[in-house]
């Protein structure tokens, strides 16, 4: 059986072949993106000149520790490529992201990038989004009312789902880098991700959701047979 970490690293290594000297990069979050930052740092140590915008404080700390030069979207509002993982990837390259809780910064950084390259092992490919619980980032104020409004939207969009307030392993509520909370919606199957994404944005209190529609340019999918570029 192939080691899942080896597959993630294969996808990350293939993504590195898209990186050229002088590029401005969005640096994703999660275990697959972590491999990419590790490999990128090796190239930087060998002389590659790039600058990165991290999508989380965890990625920032990793990149700083490894000597990858960083910038911000205030200093560098347009990026060439973002390389990031995903929790689910459908045939149209729509994604569910946010399993690591970084969806807000991940979406802002991806939207500021000319291209978003998704890196993943083959287990992330699905026919329809929704089996992975959809992360919805919400403001702490009015949580109960926001939760009820989200539940109505999910029902109206054909995917009624229990909502779970995300907690850390120690039982404390998970708080995002932006100071918000996350409700995970166990939809099972999302019939129309475009409609659901738009309707979630109309709920006051919803800061962002983990549906990434039309943002990915391609996906690098690693399986034991090799890393394949899709899209
Ligand atoms: C973090 C994310 C991650 O990219 C996603 O959860 C995939 O992570 P991993 O590579 O560890 O499977 O969206 O918010």
Automatic annotation (TrEMBL):
The metabolic or biological pathway listed in the UniProt record of this protein is: Carbohydrate degradation; pentose phosphate pathway; D-ribose 5-phosphate from D-ribulose 5-phosphate (non-oxidative stage): step 1/1
EC identifiers of the protein: 5.3.1.6
Q: Catalysed reaction per UniProt?
A: aldehydo-D-ribose 5-phosphate = D-ribulose 5-phosphate
What sort of enzyme, by top EC class, is this?
isomerase
A GO BP entry:
pentose-phosphate shunt, non-oxidative branch
Which keywords does UniProt give here?
A: Isomerase
State the family named in the UniProt similarity comment for this chain. Answer: Belongs to the ribose 5-phosphate isomerase family.
Function, in words:
Catalyzes the reversible conversion of ribose-5-phosphate to ribulose 5-phosphate.
Protein name in UniProt: Ribose-5-phosphate isomerase A
Give the source lineage, highest ranks first.
Bacteria, Pseudomonadati, Pseudomonadota, Alphaproteobacteria, Hyphomicrobiales
């Amino acid at each position: 059986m192939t080691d899942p970490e080896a597959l993630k690293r294969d996808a990350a290594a293939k993504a590195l072949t898209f990186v050229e000297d002088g590029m401005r990069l969005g640096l994703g979050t999660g275990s697959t993106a972590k491999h990419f930052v590790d490999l990128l740092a090796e190239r930087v140590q060998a002389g590659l000149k790039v600058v990165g915008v991290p999508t989380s404080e965890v990625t920032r700390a990793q990149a700083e520790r490894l000597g990858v030069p960083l910038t911000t979207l205030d200093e560098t509002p347009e990026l060439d490529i973002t390389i990031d993982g995903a929790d689910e990837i459908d045939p149209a390259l729509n994604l569910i992201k946010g399993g690591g809780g970084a969806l807000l910064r991940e979406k802002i950084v991806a939207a500021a990038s000319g291209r978003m390259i998704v890196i993943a092992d083959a287990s992330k490919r699905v026919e329809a989004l929704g089996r992975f619980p959809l992360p919805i980032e919400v403001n702490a104020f009015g949580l109960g009312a926001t939760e009820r409004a989200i539940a109505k939207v999910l029902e109206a969009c054909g995917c009624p789902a229990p909502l779970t307030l995300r907690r850390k392993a120690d039982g404390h509520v998970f708080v995002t880098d932006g100071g918000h909370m996350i409700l995970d919606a166990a939809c099972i199957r999302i019939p129309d991700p475009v409609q659901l994404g738009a309707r979630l944005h109309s709920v006051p209190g919803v800061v962002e959701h983990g549906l990434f529609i039309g943002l990915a340019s391609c996906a690098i999918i690693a399986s034991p047979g090799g890393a394949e570029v899709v899209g």
